[in-house]
What does this fold into?
Amino acid sequence: MSPWRKIFAALYDRMMAEAEKAGLSAHRQALLAGAKGRVLEIGGGTGANLPFYPDSVTELVIAEPEEPMAIRLERKLQRYRIPTRVVRARAEQLPLEAASFDCAVATLVLCTVTDPARALAEIRRLLKPGGRLLFLEHVRSEDPGLARWQDRLRMPWSWIGCGCQCNRRTVANIHAAGFAVSDLRHEIFPKAAPLARPLVIGSATF
It folds into this structure.
């Protein structure tokens, strides 16, 4: 593992603090109000979503493949009120039983997974029929000028962001995976660099 990934994990909460205060936390809270039952979160990072899961969640399983992130996440779980466990696995291949979750959550992670189609297929495999996917993701801009800059700067952005792709067509990928998007809002990622400002928040079922 590269030293930068360890540094990135150590600084992540601090780097995100202003964005969270400026509205990102409010977006998380509104999104996660719809979570219930047995919930899978992919790419849980350091646990930014933990304060916002409602009591309607009976069990939470968080997949996090990056060891430095997972260590910080587990520290936050020591007194957490919802039964939760961390699975050190990539979203594309999760060692979990099919059709065993009521809800899946993806926040600021589908930009980073190596294979979005495979990750979404895995989410679909793990959801019960009628299960919901709740997502909050920064995406490719609908403005052609900004989209071109996202394409040009994708590689250096990925180096800085530990694999983050600033030009992902995430909503199209969700549709292609067989989900029906039932709710979708276009927002602005607060305090983010222009390349990451286009934000989508929504839910989907299959």
Summary: The longest helix spans residues 3-32. The helical segments are 3-32, 67-76, 116-126, 144-152, 154-160, 170-176.
